[in-house]
């Protein structure tokens, strides 16, 4: 059973989606991922988007760690119901509606997002059968809704190729954990702004 690793609800068990419909991020990978995100200093006070949320474990972990607002997007009825139960758990602990569940296809959700909608941290853990062109199309839609210093985390099989990043987004790091590979990306920087930004394996930060 997965759990909240740290923050206000640290140690609390999460509800899992029954059956083999989803592929939950293991606690080992989640712990390593959030250790890196904590080093970036990007979670507290951020707007977080968890696409293909499954049980919502990545989004609710962010909520436990102080994210200002978390949107969980999941189309499957059973999975979205589990997302809601886990969201209710976090919202109860923090005493406000920090996590909101949207039962929607990812593409439709991004198309409906207004021009002013932007997120600081985005997780994508699409099902393995989603092919690379379809993933690239989602990333293209997402690129219009990223805050200037946003971080995008794509979780794929270690055997999958690197995602096709759209114009306006570029990879700055990747990490393999057994059968899982995490790709980290950020909004591209224009040539005029390049001298004002330092990008390394620890993530983006101002010089």
Describe the structure.
The protein has helices at 27-40, 57-64, 77-94, 106-112, 132-143; strands at residues 47-51, 69-74, 99-103, 119-124, 146-157, 169-177, 180-187, 197-200, 203-206. The protein is α/β, with parallel strands linked by helices and 207 residues long. The strands form two sheets. The protein has a seven-stranded mixed beta sheet, with helices on both faces. A two-stranded antiparallel ribbon has the order 8-9. The protein is globular and about 40 Å long.
Task: Considering the chains and any ligands shown, give keywords for the structure.
9 strands, 7-stranded mixed β-sheet, two-stranded antiparallel sheet, alpha/beta, 207 residues
The gist of it:
This protein is α/β, with parallel strands linked by helices and 207 residues long. The chain contains five helices and nine strands; from the N terminus they run H-E-H-E-H-E-H-E-H-E-E-E-E-E. The chain starts with 26 loop residues before the first helix and ends with a strand.
